[in-house]
Amino acid sequence: MAGFVNIRRDVDDKFYRYRMPVLLTKIEGKGNGIKTVVPNMSDVARALSRPPTYPTKFFGSELGAQTSVDEKNDRYIVNGAHDAKRLRELLDAFIDKFVLCGSCKNPETDLIITKNELIVRDCKACGERTGVDMRHRLSTYILKNPPKNKSKRKGGHAEAPNPSNEANGTAGAADIDEAEAEAGSGDDEMTKRIRSEASELNTESQLVDEGWSADTSSDAVKARVVAVTSGVTSLGLIGPGEDESDEDADSPYTQLGNWVKEYPGCNAVEVYKKVQELGIEKKHKAVQILAQALFTSDIISEIPSYLPVFQKMVTSEKHQKALLGAIERLAGLDYPELIAVIPRILMEFYQADVLDEDVVTSWGTHVSKKYVDKDTSKKVRKASEPFLKWLAEAEDDDEDGE
To answer: Does domain 109-186 match CATH 2.20.25.350?
Structure first.
C-alpha cells in the first residue's frame, strides 16, 4: 500500500496537514505498445481537488507522449515507459502551476474560468485569485473540459484578474469585488449558446461593453454594398484548383472575406458571430477564408487573438487541410517573408490542438496544387521540415520511452 507525502514536497514539517498518496506507476506491454499506468491517479487527484484527467494530460504534454483516459474503469495511461521518480517530479510541477495559490502557496484552491476565458486559482485560505500559465497546453484542455467546482459563485464565472497583478500572480481586492458584482447578473441567451458550444469564446456582455454593433448609417451601408460586390476572387482568397463558380457577390464566403477586410481589428467573438450569421460556421471553406483574411505578415502575434475561432470551427481533417491551404497561400503568395516562420505558425496551431500530428505530417509530405502552384507548394512544405522533424522525433521518443 502506498504511503502519503506532503502535497508540497519542499515542506518538511511533519504536522503539515495537506497530504496526498505517493504516486504509483506500473509499466505494461512491450515494444511499441509499452505504456505507463498510474493505478492511484484518482486518489492523488482527489487529494489535490482536481480531476484525474488534468495531471494525466499534464504528464503527456510535458513528456511529448500520448495519453489515454478510461474514467469508467479508473485507468490513466501515459504511452511509453516512464519511471515513478520522473512522474513524481512532473506531479510537483503540475501542483506548482495548477494547484498551489500563487500568493500563499496553499493547495486549498479551486480552478475558475473567468469571463475572459482565463483560468485562475481561487484560494480558500488567503482569498487571493492568481492566474495560471495560459500558454501551457493543459490550459487549453481545461478550457475545453472545465472543472466541476462544488462551490461556484453565483453566475459560475469570475472576472479576470487585473493585468498588472496577473504578472506577479495576484489579483487585487477591487477585481474580486467587481467580479462578484458582475457574476450576480447572470448570462444572456447568446452567451449561454456560445459558451455551451465553445468555451474559448468571450461572452455577449463583453460585446456590449465594447460597443460593437452593425453600423446602419447610409454611408456604412453603401460601403458594405461596394465591398460585397468586389467578390472573394478580387481578394485573392480562392486557390487555383478550387471551384470559383459559387464565389459571386452574394456568396456567404464573399461576404465573410469582405466583412473582415471592412472591419480590421475585429475580435474573435465578432468574427464568430458573423460566421454564424452567414450560416457557414461548419464549412471548411470558411476556415480558409478567415485565415487568409484575418492574418497578415504579423501572423505570429495575431494567432493568439483568433485561436478561439479556429478551435471552435476546425472540427475535422477537411477543416485542418483548409487551414493548411490558407497558410500555403499566405506564405507562398501574399507574404513571402512568412516562409521563414512556417514552423512557428504550425507550432502555434498544433499546441492549441487545432492541427493534429497525422494531418500535418501527411500534408508536409504530399505536394498539392489545390491552393497554390506546384513550385510554391514545394517551397512551403520544404520550409515546414523543421517542425515535421520535431514531430517525428517526439514520436520516436514516445516509442522508445525508457
So the answer is: yes
